[in-house]
Amino acid sequence: MPLISALAFSLNSYGFAGAANEVSIEYLVVAGGGAGGAPAGGGGGGGGGYRTGTGLLAKIGETITVTVGAGGSGASSPANGAASEIEFSLGTSPTITSAGGGKGGHYVAAPGDLGHDGGSGGGGFGTAGVPGTAEGGSGNIPNVSPSQGNDGGDGFHISGSKVMGGGGGGAGAVGVDAVPGGAAGAGGSGSSGAPFTPLLMSAGGGGGASPSGTSAGSAGGSGAGAGAIGNSAGANASDNQGGGGGGGGHSGGPAGAGGSGRVVLKLSSEATSTDGSPTESEDGGLFKYDFTGSGSIVL
How confident is the model at residue 163, as a pLDDT? Predict the structure, then answer.
């Protein structure tokens, strides 16, 4: 056996990580988006947390467990999105978790009108009988670096029925504030961070509702939902893009549901087995595993 190979064999035999038993990993972890706010109008849902990076390591024989978070349910009982995660059975690399997007606020007494915190925050909506600003939820909760998302936009209540919702925050930008007497807030844009640029504009925020205005908030990218006008329903976000749902309209207009998340891994070595039926392909000499539902990989 050559000297270098013998040395690598000896190190690996005693549990030291070396090139012979390590697999390098690039990752994209997108959580489920939050639903829009409802009933009686609401802010846009926040996009799911969006984390991507390189430099993770795993060992041959290790299992990587993948959780793909669901989008928050919409209709009249909106919910936050669920977290997505990758976890390593031997603890070779830290668990990577993206938080679900916060749901939008809705038209009730404070603090129910405030956008909820999450990977990206939900948009705010006006407080019943209290003219003024209703703050959007905070993004990047819990705090990670680089940031996984942005704050939701503020909603407003001027007087009477003059209420507009703020846009949900997105992975690429904050949600837009509603304009008093004007338009509801648009959702913040999604992100397309390297090394996964084909997955464009994921985790955008949902648009805020405009129950009494003329212009609802637009979606923050093609995967998120637009807000409602009048008594109509907020639009649902698309599956597996982590977008926020659109805010629901007045008098029981249902909120749009958030979109489910997605996890993509690129490995320097091919997996020996998979569970959960990820889509497998080769990409630039790496082995790519695209999960639209939960599962696992054995290296």
Answer: 79
Q: What is the pLDDT of residue 45?
A: 96
Amino acid at 50: Y
Beta bridge partners, 58, equal 23
User: Which residues make Cβ contacts (< 8 Å) with residue 14, sequence separation at least 6?
Assistant: none
Q: Which residue has the tokens 């006008």?
A: 229
**How does DSSP assign the chain, residue by residue?**
--HHHHHHHHHHHTT---TTTEEEEEEEEEPPPPPPP-SS-BPPPPPPPEEEEEEEEEETT-EEEEE-PPPPP-BTS--PPPPEEEEETT-SS--EEEPPPPPPPBSSSTTTTSPPPSSSPPPP-PBTTB-EEEPPPPSSSS--SS----PPPPEEE-STT-EEPPPPP-SSSPPPPPPTTSPPPPPPP-B--TT-TTSTTBSPPPPPPBSSSS-PPPPSSTTS-PPPBTT-PPPPPPTTS-PPPPPP-TTTPPBPPPPP-EEEEEESS--SEEES--EEEEETTEEEEEESS-EEEE-
Residues whose CB is less than 8 angstroms from the CB of residue 188 and which lie 6 or more positions away in sequence, other chains included: 47, 120, 150, 152, 153, 167, 168, 169, 170, 171, 172, 173, 174, 175, 176, 204, 205, 220
Q: Which two tokens stand for residue 169?
A: 């925050």
Contact 171, 219 (CB under 8 A): no
| pLDDT for the residue 9 | 36
Residue 11 phi, psi (nearest 5): -60, -45
- Which residue numbers in the chain have pLDDT < 50? 1-18
Can you give the pLDDT at residue 17? 42
pTM (whole model) above 0.70: yes
